[in-house]
Design brief:
This protein is α+β, with helices and mostly antiparallel strands. It is built from 6 helices and 3 strands, in the order ααβααβαβα. It has one domain: Helicase, Ruva Protein, domain 3, CATH 1.10.8.60. 55% of the residues lie in helices and 12% in strands.
């Protein structure tokens, strides 16, 4: 049930965080095990759905500070990273150009 709350409602937490990371052109992905671990943690804390945001924020806090100004293009959250056994996986590389970037390049090319 809590896993569905993370992904299905129109204001679900996973899409919210994916959009937040997307502002820095970073893909955020969760394994099914990670989603289950987040839900399990909320049940252990007896916070239910209300505690999901806090768990997600604590889990992604370091990534949110590390991403701006870096070459990170993707963050993968696993069950181990939710349980504290490992950090989320950062994938480094060149960010993919967005439509805005392409429009800016075209405008600059036309201005020359």
């Amino acid at each position: 049930m809590l896993v569905r709350i993370l992904t299905e409602p129109k204001n679900a937490l996973v899409p919210q965080f994916q959009m937040l990371f997307g502002m820095d052109k970073v893909e955020l992905a969760f394994t099914p095990d990670a989603m289950e671990a987040i839900a399990h943690m909320a049940m252990e804390r007896k916070t239910g759905a209300r505690g999901l945001r806090s768990i997600m924020e604590n889990l992604l806090l370091d990534a949110m500070f590390e991403i701006p100004g870096s070459d990170i293009v993707s963050v993968h959250v696993t069950g181990d990273s939710v349980r504290g056994d490992a950090a989320p996986i950062f994938v480094h590389g060149q960010p993919l150009p967005t439509e805005d970037d392409q429009e800016e390049e075209q405008a600059l090319a036309q201005a020359k």
